[in-house]
Structure formats: structure tokens, C-alpha cells
Amino acid sequence: MKIAPSILASDFSRLADELKDIEKGGADYVHLDVMDGRFVPNLTFGVPVIQSLRPCTKLPFDVHLMTYHPEAYLEGLEAAGAHMVSFHVEAVPHLDRMIHNIKDRGIKAGIALNPGTPLASIEQVLSLLDFVLIMSVNPGFGGQKFIPYTLDKIAALSAMIKEKGLSLSIEVDGGVNRDNAPLLKKAGAQILVAGSSVFGKEDRAQAIRDLKV
């Protein structure tokens, strides 16, 4: 299991130190939630902040775009050395074009699915993706409770991937903790995004180990 701590739950006044802390603690990625205040009701940070964080850690950047017009961010994210970028089905009219726009920049492409967004919405482009981000809370805010029915969605996606003979990864974001991590793994998840369950703990290394089931 790979762990991607979300800096949405970190201390924004000391982001550089927070990144160093999770890197030493064994994190596999840094998860960066970009919100525009329109696609979701919250507003976080943009490309300049991400670019400023790049020298602070060697961990790959996993960027989740909760924005309309996600294509507008790609040039800056490429310059910032983003490793993975996901966007929402509802944010763009042409999924195929957006996926290729990401991959042509040498970035792994993913689609994020809200709890109520069906798997059928991405079935035709599944073979083009490097990963799918299953939201197990409604996006826009940290610290929410895990939505149990998303376990069935993860299992269904895992079965769909196997049936089609594909090798893309399943990432899960929202309410992830040490109690549901084993269930997520059993359902087929390979990357867990963790906010308060990592940054809310004094011992970040132990918190990350608790999730690596």
C-alpha cells in the first residue's frame, strides 16, 4: 500500500517542515488538493505554492484538481514537476482530450470520481488512465467521515480493471484511517490519501506505518 499524505490537513504556516516530516516518516507521495472555490465551495492554493514546495521534498507530487477548467493548470504543474494529476469528470466536456493533454506532458493521468459519480462515466476511457481517484467523501473539505458505500465502488472498479486486463492504480481519498485501511486494501485500493490521520498525529512515521497494511 502506498500512502499519500494530504497537506490540506497540515500546518500551512510550516509547509516545508511538514513535507520533510512525512518524507522521513515513509510517505510515498505528497497529495496536493487544488480547489478553485467554484467546483467545490472551498479555496486552497494554486500552482505558485506547489512550485515553491518542489525544492522542499523529493517525494512525487500527486495533484488533485477540484477545479473547473483544469487544463489551465497543466503548464504550471508540468513546470513544478508534478508526477500525477487527477481531474473530475464533471469539470471537462472532453475526457479523452484532457487525459492526453496530461500524458503528453509526461505526467500520469487520473480521473477523480465523486461518491455519487458512477463508474460508467469513465468506462470508455479507462484504458487511457494511469489511475482512478475514488472520493470516499464529498470533495471540498478535510476531516470528513468515510462514506461506507464507496467500498463497493472500489471493489467494482477493481473487478472492471481485471476484466479488461488493465494495470492502472486505484487511489482513495476521504476519511481514510487505520480502521478502514485494511478494508480499502481488500476492496482493491493501492494508494491511500490520508489527511488528519497522518498530520493529526504527533508521530507521523507511526501514523503512516499504521496505514501501510
TrEMBL record:
Entry GO CC: cytoplasm
Segments forming a coiled coil: none
Active site: 33, 173
Cofactor note: Binds 1 divalent metal cation per subunit.
Residues at which a divalent metal cation binds: 31, 33, 64, 173
Cofactor annotation: a divalent metal cation; Co(2+); Fe(2+); Mn(2+)
Entry EC number(s): 5.1.3.1
Binding site for substrate: 6, 64, 140-143, 173-175, 195-196
A molecular function (GO) term: metal ion binding
GO biological process: pentose catabolic process; pentose-phosphate shunt
Domain of life: Bacteria
Cross-referenced InterPro entries: Aldolase_TIM, Ribul_P_3_epim, Ribul_P_3_epim-like, RibuloseP-bd_barrel
Catalyzed reactions per annotation: D-ribulose 5-phosphate = D-xylulose 5-phosphate
Family according to the record: Belongs to the ribulose-phosphate 3-epimerase family.
Function: Catalyzes the reversible epimerization of D-ribulose 5-phosphate to D-xylulose 5-phosphate.
Protein name, as recorded: Ribulose-phosphate 3-epimerase
Source organism of the structure: Dialister succinatiphilus YIT 11850
Classification of source organism: Bacteria, Bacillati, Bacillota, Negativicutes, Veillonellales
